[in-house]
Design a protein that fits this description.
The complex is a heterodimer of chains A (331) and B (167).
Chain A: H1 3-15, H2 24-34, E1 59-63, E2 66-70, E3 84-88, E4 94-97, E5 104-108, E6 113-119, E7 125-130, E8 133-141, E9 145-147, H3 161-166, E10 220-225, H4 237-242, E11 247-255, E12 261-267, E13 272-280, E14 283-290, E15 299-309, E16 314-323, H5 326-330
Chain B: H1 11-17, H2 19-30, H3 35-49, H4 59-78, H5 81-95, H6 101-112, H7 115-126, H8 131-138, H9 142-160
Helix pairs in contact in B: 2-3, 2-4, 2-7, 3-4, 4-8, 6-9, 7-9, 8-9
Classes of the chains: A mainly beta (331), B mainly alpha (167).
Chain lengths: 331, 167
């Protein structure tokens, strides 16, 4: 230990202006509850968060006169609307979709306790936090969930699927950039059958030209950027990326002249997932999530979507998403 | 600090024991006296509502870095970083009148350091965080922290007319 170190420690102690703690815990708890969060660690404040655990039911409860974020339980009281803890009772697990009534994207274990954050307009579905990814929301049938005593899921806000999905990060305002031109394969023209030339001696016989058989074209596929992480330009890129770290949302449009199409996607980056968030008509929304760990710079990932029609025709289109790590965004 | 369960952060206890020092560190790192409390609170909200995938090795260090990054981003956008620093010594002298000339010299030398070196110095000398914890909070290697700390000490020693010596 040198004289310089002693000087620095002493002077920095003199220069330090400690923060005023009055009302801080309440303010932080209220803001966190408003965002629907409540993940907590178990270590001492000055040390590490040993045994970091992600709870499945979160809320704000009053404990001993103070405000503590943690697991709510029946009878704990003080749960703050609009979030209601519910228990998934189906023993075999129930399907959960990205949107009310949509295709299954995951399933919840029987007996899982989750936090309901919204309901569909008809009340048939509840939007709940995905226990596997608490920043995401999935929809389950209301009949498969039982609210905790004293909780009333009918008072939850009515949201559609995209609004509910955005609920954990209300500050995110997706920006839509113009869709790329869809790739369209030229339609094969039917072959003309030439009619025989009439002769003078015979009455020309009209030749029947067969109707061209309808050709089942390949589907058309367009990929539109639709993510805060893909806003280009200077000055706003960093902030836009960090509104939804390690994630990007991509809009895909696909259609076929004869039938419906299925759309799937692949990426060229390893630890990541590509999940269908919604599908309506010819529009799909996919959520890309990468695990970037301690990467200090944003990365660009190539995502390729393939649309397949009922005849097996395929067409692919790629786009690039730019995502930033949590470390990049928050230190 | 008492922690009731493994799934609960005792926010009140964290605020009581760590918050004052974290705010002080962010003020020294960024020079933004007014913005530091809000930035620290926002960082706590983010940690609770949208936690990182990997757990922070040290929560106080993590919050300090997150809040400092946010304020520096804001300062860069405003182009007012230097103005914020210029305000600090005068405000401090007026407010407390207990700073020695050496304290003021240290402050000036600290302000003159590059952002990252100043941040590491404050985390190390004010908050007593280890090199490992600082590296984890910054998302860099321990070697990087050691290198930056070495350069910072050399610069501070030169500014203060002291020998850097060995820590």
């Amino acid at each position: 230990m040198s004289d310089l170190d002693d000087i620095l420690r002493e002077s920095l102690g003199h220069l330090a202006e400690p923060g005023d703690t009055s009302g801080v815990a309440d303010a932080v708890a209220a803001k966190a509850a408003a965002l629907g969060g409540g993940v907590a660690g178990g270590g001492a404040a000055g040390g590490g968060f040993a045994g970091w655990v992600i709870p499945v039911v979160l809320g704000m409860v009053a404990v001993g006169g103070g405000v503590t974020l943690g697991v709510t339980s029946a009878g704990a009281g003080g749960s703050v609307a609009p979030y209601s803890p519910v228990t998934i009772w189906n023993g075999d697990g129930i399907p959960a979709a990205a949107c009310p009534g949509g295709p299954e994207v995951t399933s919840l274990d029987g007996g899982a306790r989750v936090l309901a954050v919204a309901r569909s307009e008809d009340g048939a579905y509840l939007a709940v936090r995905d226990p596997e990814a608490l920043t995401h929301t999935v929809w389950v049938a209301s009949g498969s969930a039982t609210a905790d005593p004293g909780e009333d899921v009918t008072t939850l806000p009515v949201l559609d699927c995209l609004e509910a999905s955005a609920a954990p990060s209300p500050s995110v305002t997706p920006s839509v950039t113009p869709s790329e031109e869809p790739t369209v394969k030229p339609t094969p023209k039917p072959t003309k059958t030439s009619s025989p030339k009439p002769t003078k001696t015979s009455k020309p016989k009209p030749t029947k030209t067969p109707d061209p058989k309808p050709v089942d074209e390949k589907p058309t596929l367009g990929v539109a950027k639709w993510s805060p992480g893909q806003i280009s330009g200077t000055g706003g890129v960093h902030d836009s990326l960090c509104e939804d770290p390690e994630s990007a949302t991509i809009k895909v449009s696909a259609a076929d002249d004869k039938s419906g199409v299925e759309v799937s996607g692949t990426t060229n980056y390893g630890p990541d997932t590509l999940t269908q968030v919604s599908h309506s008509g010819s529009d799909w929304v996919f959520k890309y999530t990468a695990t970037l760990g301690g990467n200090t710079d944003p990365i660009s990932v190539n995502v390729t979507f393939t649309a397949t029609d009922s005849a097996g025709h395929k067409v692919s289109k790629s786009t690039t998403v730019k995502v930033a790590s949590t470390y990049f965004c928050f230190g | 600090m008492s922690v009731a369960t493994a799934t609960r952060i005792d926010l009140e206890a964290f605020v009581a024991s760590e918050y004052p020092r974290v705010v002080a560190a962010v003020r020294l790192i960024t020079g933004d006296r007014e913005g530091a409390p809000d930035a620290v609170q926002d960082a706590l909200v983010v940690l609770i509502a949208n936690p990182p995938r990997s757990e922070p090795a040290n929560v106080a260090a993590y919050i300090t870095v997150v809040a400092s990054n946010k304020l520096r981003d804001q300062q860069r956008r405003r182009g007012a970083e230097q103005r914020a620093y210029d305000k600090l010594p005068q405000d401090r002298l007026t407010a407390t009148d207990v700073l020695s000339s050496l304290d003021i010299d240290v402050h000036r030398a600290l302000v003159a350091l590059p952002d990252r070196q100043r941040e590491i110095c404050v985390l190390h000398y004010l908050m007593d965080h280890s090199v490992d914890h600082i590296a984890s909070a910054l998302g860099v290697s321990t070697g990087t922290v050691k290198t930056q700390l070495h350069r910072a000490r050399a610069a501070l020693a030169a500014a203060l007319g002291k020998e850097a010596g060995d820590e």
